[in-house]
Amino acid sequence: MPRRRIGFWYRFAAVICKPPLVVLLRRDWRGMEHIPAEGGFITAVNHNSHIDPFAYAHFQYNTGRVPRFLAKSGLFRKGFVGAAMRGTGQIPVYRESTDALSAFRAAIEAVDRGECVAFYPEGTLTRDPAGWPMTGKTGAARVALQTKCPVIPVAQWGCNELLPPYAKKPHLLPRKTHRVLAGPPVDLTRFYDREMTTDLLKEATEVIMAAITRQLEEIRGEKAPETPYDPRRERIEQRRRTQAQTQRGEQQAASPVQSAPSAQSAQSGQEEGLGK
């Protein structure tokens, strides 16, 4: 399958976005040889800054295989933004779909056409306190198992130092370095031609996330936590902590009322003793 031409809109976006990225960020990019020269494939990328989609797109643009990101379908409908999203070949995600696989039908079609589809498997900016990848969502695994295309794990670091997750102001100085390391395709063959159950998708996703994390460990020169940060588990734990605090507060509020009769009884006893 021949590669798709980059096209006017992507080149136009590059003209706008590349100059500020070059000014703001040094580049340490490795692993471009793992980006397939032909055919459809997926890149699975960690996400730790609001600006890393632009920096990562810059990296992959330079390989000649531009990424098609997934974005909410509403962004494609109106105005200049919609025209740019359609023109650059980004992938609409139909969140209103009740069928989890059909929600990614456009991504599957893009891979079948020979495109690169870039997934952020975490689904949002990492909430791990140290910036490590969290547990992933199953979308990338679904598309990969449906199409049997290569999945390239990509780790990046540095945009989060320029603009930390959920921060409002960038840290411009000193100038930061955007580090990217693309790895060899993730081996998912053992999951092929099997029923696409929740457990199967979860296991395949864990394999993909582990590969991304290994790439990031190499970039950072340190080990990631044994257990990835799980936002769902953290919400459950936070709910439990909140409930426990509420119960303790209720008990503390009730304790003076409960002890009042005892205090009154003690006072009555003292008065009776004095009267004898």
TrEMBL record:
Ranges of biased composition (kind: Low complexity): 243-268
Chain spans, region Disordered: 219-276
GO molecular function, one term: acyltransferase activity
Alphabetical keyword list: Acyltransferase, Transferase
Name of the protein: 1-acyl-sn-glycerol-3-phosphate acyltransferase
CDD domains assigned to the protein according to its UniProt record, in alphabetical order: LPLAT_AGPAT-like
Domain of life of the native organism: Bacteria
Stretches assigned to the Phospholipid/glycerol acyltransferase domain: 41-159
Ranges of biased composition (kind: Basic and acidic residues): 219-240
